[in-house]
Design goal:
single chain; mainly alpha; 7 helices
Amino acid sequence: MIPPKCLIKAITGYDCPFCGFQRSVWAILRGDFIDAFLYNPYLYIISPYIIMVSLCVAGIIPRESRLCRILYSRTSIMTAAFLTILWWIIRNTAVYKDLIS
């Protein structure tokens, strides 16, 4: 089975913030955490937030809880969006590409 290609990369030629996610997950499942980190280091930063929001959405963490209110706050959402955009810019710079190669 051929994995799907990133639409953003196909159109623009630039890596999106989540390019390398599938490879990273497969590397984690193989126990190769260093390769997983190198495929997309941002996933290690944003994953706890995504997991916690998912637990709130699924109702595992009560939606009325203080944690869910914090996760759903404008500040948290804007911070996650800012970090994602910042990562998108950084990962497409020559300095970053030189650093990981």
